[in-house]
Amino acid sequence: METRANAAPPDTSTPRRRATVVGAGIAGLAAALRLYQQGWEVVVLERSPTRRSSGYLVNLHGPGYAAAERLGLLPALTSRDIGFFTSVLVHADGREKFRIPAAVAEAAVGNRALSVFRGDLESALYDAVAGCADIRFATTVQAVAQTPGEVVVTLGDGTSLRTELLVGADGVHSRVRELVFGAEQEYFVDLGHMVGAFPLETVPEHVPEGAGTTFIGPGRTAAVMNLGPERSSAFFAYRCSDAKSELALGAAPALTRAFEDLGGGVADALRQLDSGAYFDSVGQIVMDRWHQGRVVLLGDAAWCVTVFAGYGAALALDGADRLGAASAAHGDDIPAALGAWETALRPEVLQRQALARKGMNRFAPPSRAHVWAGELMLRAIQLPGIRGLVRRSIQRANN
Predict the structure, then answer these.
(1) Which of 4, 65, 186, 361 has the fewest CB atoms found within 10 Å of its own CB?
(2) What is the rounded distance in angstroms from the CA atom of residue 36 to the CA atom of residue 94?
(3) What is the pTM of this model?
(4) To 10 degrees, the CA torsion angle through 254, 255, 259, 263?
C-alpha cells in the first residue's frame, strides 16, 4: 500500500491489527487515517455508491484544528480555507440591516482556525486515506457478531469480514448502532427543526462578493454566501413540528414553501434549489455508552451535536484522533482502550450538545423579541470591550 504525502507513516513496530470502519464521511475517514497511522490495516465500508459532499461551511478551531494538524491535514485544508468574511444581516426583502466585518470574527477566534466547505474537508480526508485503506463503496452491513477476540461483520452480499475493531461512523441513522445497541428511536432526540444546505452553481446576484447575507426571523434562518464561482452556498433552518411530513415532501418543495416570501439572496438561492440538496430533521443521539466489546460508535452515530453547535466536524476529527491515541496507549486491550477513550471524550460531547440546545434560539428564534435581542448582541460584539469578552469565552470553550 502506498503512503500519501500528507498521511503520517504507520507504526510498524508491532504486527498490523485489523480495523473496519463503517461510513466514509468525516468521522469515518478520520478514524481510518488515524488508525492507519497507528499501524492498523483498515477497511472502510460505505453504503453510498459514490462519494458524497455538501455545500455548507464547517469551522475548525480549538481541539478540531489541533486534531487536523496531528492528522496531517493542514497543508491540504489551508489551500481550501475560506477565511473570514463579512456577514450582512438583512431584512426579509434583502435590504441590509447592518454588517459585521470579517475582522471582528478573526479577532474573536484567532489564527488557529479554518473555515472550509464540508465537501472540501471530506476530499482532503479521502485523498489522505485512499492510498492506505481499502475503501469499498455500495457496501452495506447486515449483521455484527462478537467474540472476545474479534468482530465478524456480515455484508449485504453475504460475505463476511473478521476484524479486531469495528468503528460505526455511519451517521445519525447508523446501521452499526441499530445492530449492536438497538433501534434508533431509543436514542434519537428530535429537536423540532429542519435544515437544508446546497452549493450554488451561479453566484447570487444580491449578495456582495466576499460576503454572506443572513435573514433571521421568528422560527427560521436563511444564509447565502457569495464567495465566488464554485464557492457559494446556501443554508436554511426552520422550526418544524412534523419532520416526517417535511421529509416526505422533499427538499425543494419544503424549503421553497418555508422561505419563498423572502427576497434578495434567498430568492437567488431558491431558484437554484433542486432535489440534490442536503435536507434532514435536526436531532441529537443521546446514549449512556458508545462502545460495547470491540465495537465503538463515533461522530454523529454516537452523539450528533447538530449544526446548531457549530462543532460537529471538529468533534469528529478530535474523537477520531483520540481514538487512535487510546488504541496506541492500551495495545491489544481494545475494550480498555475504548473505555478510556469514552471517559475522556464524553464531557466535551455533553457540553457541545447542551450548547446546541441553547443555540436553537439563535437559528430559529421563538419570537420577534428574540430576534431583536439577537441582533442587539451581534451589534454589541463589534465594540472593542465586548469583542474581548467573546474572544476569551471562545478560548475557554476550546481549552
Answers:
(1) 186
(2) 49
(3) 0.89
(4) -140
**Rounded to an integer, what distance in angstroms lies between the CA atom of residue 65 and that of residue 81?**
12
Strands laid side by side in the 151-155 sheet: 141-146, 151-155, 160-163
Integer angstrom CA distances of residue 218 from 88, 123, 310, 364, 373: 18, 36, 20, 6, 12
Q: Which three cell numbers stand for residue 331?
A: 495495545
Q: How is residue 317 annotated by DSSP?
A: H
pLDDT tens track for 98-127:
998 887 777 767 778 899 988 899 999 999
From 48-62, 149-163, 186-200, 237-251, the region with the lowest mean pLDDT: 48-62
Round to whole Å and give the CA distance between 102 and 353: 27
Phi and psi torsions of 206, nearest 5°: -95, 15
- At 361, which amino acid appears? N
C-alpha cell at 249: 415532501
Q: Which residues fall within 8 angstroms of residue 183, CB to CB, at 6 or more apart?
A: none
List domains and CATH numbers for the chain: 18-82+114-187+285-360 (3.50.50.60), 86-111+189-283+361-398 (3.30.9.30)
Phi-psi region of 243 (alpha: psi -120 to 50; beta: other; left: phi over 0): alpha
3-state secondary structure of 360: helix
